[in-house]
């Protein structure tokens, strides 16, 4: 992959993170926007727009660091574990999904486990769809690594959002992370195929 493609991937992912976070903020933080719409305060609205776009850039950078870290770790793991690496990845996927449900539920004093199960199930279903598409566009061996990246790496990247007391930031963070991770995963083989 040429440096021009790396730069293009960086900036397009950065833009995706900023725009998606801004759009999600309209729904997740609508009450904050409403406070400055009546009476209309253009300076505060502009400040919110800049804040959420910048926050999206940060989420995009987290996603990109996770992506390139995974590409590096995957190569090392293939060299060390060889044919066992896909099996180890499946085990780590199961553990990450268990972690999203059980350990998060343990931290909540009053609440239903159902929301945690639904969150993990939604992440798994979306990841299965993305991994299937990646395998269809490349080869069948890409399914498990793509699923691993979408479930495990996204879960790790989401940790700062999960640790906040305000659930709004967890939702504000996961949507851009998923979109940026999906974009990077599905565009990489297109960038490298041209060569």
From TrEMBL:
Q: Which InterPro entries match?
A: KinB-signalling_activ (IPR024164)
Keyword Cell inner membrane in annotation: no
Q: Which SMART domains does this chain map to?
A: KbaA (SM01251)
Statement: the UniProt record of this protein carries the keyword Ribosomal protein: no
Q: Where are the transmembrane segments?
A: 7-28, 48-71, 83-105, 111-131, 143-163, 169-188
Name any one Pfam family assigned in the record. KbaA
Q: Which UniProt keywords apply?
A: Membrane, Transmembrane, Transmembrane helix
Q: What is this protein called?
A: KinB-signaling pathway activation protein
Organism of origin is Gracilibacillus salinarum
């Amino acid at each position: 992959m040429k440096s021009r493609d790396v730069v293009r991937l960086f900036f397009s992912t950065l833009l995706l993170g900023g725009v998606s976070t801004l759009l999600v903020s309209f729904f997740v933080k609508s009450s904050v926007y409403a406070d400055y719409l009546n009476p209309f305060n253009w300076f505060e609205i502009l400040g919110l727009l800049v804040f959420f776009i910048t926050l999206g850039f940060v989420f995009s950078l987290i996603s990109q660091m996770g992506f390139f870290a995974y590409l590096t770790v995957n190569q090392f793991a293939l060299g060390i574990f060889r044919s066992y690496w896909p099996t180890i990845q499946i085990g780590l996927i199961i553990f990450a999904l268990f972690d999203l449900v059980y350990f998060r539920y343990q931290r909540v004093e009053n609440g239903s486990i159902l929301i945690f199960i639904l969150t993990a199930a939604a992440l798994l279903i979306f990841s299965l769809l993305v991994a299937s598409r990646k395998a269809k566009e490349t080869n069948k061996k890409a399914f498990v690594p793509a699923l691993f990246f979408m479930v495990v790496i996204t879960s790790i990247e989401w940790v700062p959002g999960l640790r906040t007391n305000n659930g709004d930031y967890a939702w504000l963070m996961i949507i851009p992370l998923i979109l940026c991770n999906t974009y990077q995963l599905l565009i990489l083989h297109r960038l490298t195929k041209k060569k």
